[in-house]
Amino acid sequence: MANELLIVGSVALDSVKTPFGEVTEALGGSATYSSYSASFFTGVRLVGVVGEDFPQQHISLLKDRGIHVEGLQVAKGKTFRWAGAYEYDLNEAHTLATHLNVFETFKPQIPAAYKKSDFVFLANIDPDLQLSVLDQVEKPKLVACDTMNLWIKLKPEVLKRVLQRVDFLFINDGEARQYANTPSLIRAGRILQGWGPKYVVIKKGEHGALLFGNNTFFAAPAFPLEDVYDPTGAGDTFAGGFFGYVAKNGGDISEPTLRRAVVFGTAMASFTVEKFSLERLKTLSEDQLNARVRMLKELSHFDNP
What we know:
There is one protein chain. The protein is α/β, with parallel strands linked by helices and 305 residues long. Helix content is 36%, strand content 25%.
């Protein structure tokens, strides 16, 4: 179906240690988290690459969520691996090891059936690869992208070319300040918006999210959790939930829909951090998700004096 969401990004095996436990070679990657999250709202077409050693059980997990994996290439070699650790400040990951393996030579090949996708999310990958995806798809209704500090440092001008071709930019607070070269997040959001995207969403981790539009500004809190086990993939989960919700609503970008998208993305991310990898999302029900969205509404509601 044309109105499904195409997601291109990394699929990885993560080894993560936090003060509350650790996992070894758990399913991870930007495309994995965002696809799984978006699948709660709309059909998803995933494009990425894994090695011959990638466990079949992970592919089965994605298929069981209804995620189309015909675009998941299996290349000769080993799957991309990342190892990281968090201290009590769970907003900052300390990278211990990165082994790109087959991801180092990844060239996204968009299957013919995917090229007419109405919605395209360029998860965190090299901006040159993001441009190559945009050159392959045919007139999508809406395009969103994510990025990271590495690309901001190494390829700022290429990334600006991406921004000129997208409708939404997802970026975290540190990256927004870095790229816009300002300590003010509000100024950073407006600067980034001026470089092309109609909307900029700044992810602030445990402090919520900011949405910038032409005539829109919206600030949403994060869901308050006593126990956070692993923040890995929370930002990707947020973006997938947000854009999946927009796709579910046919690409409606009215302010009420975008505000709800922020809240649904926030709720999805709050579940991800409750366990390692996708473990919490595997058991998430629609009723649980909607209940948390209602709680977020109550948390930020007040009456006029």
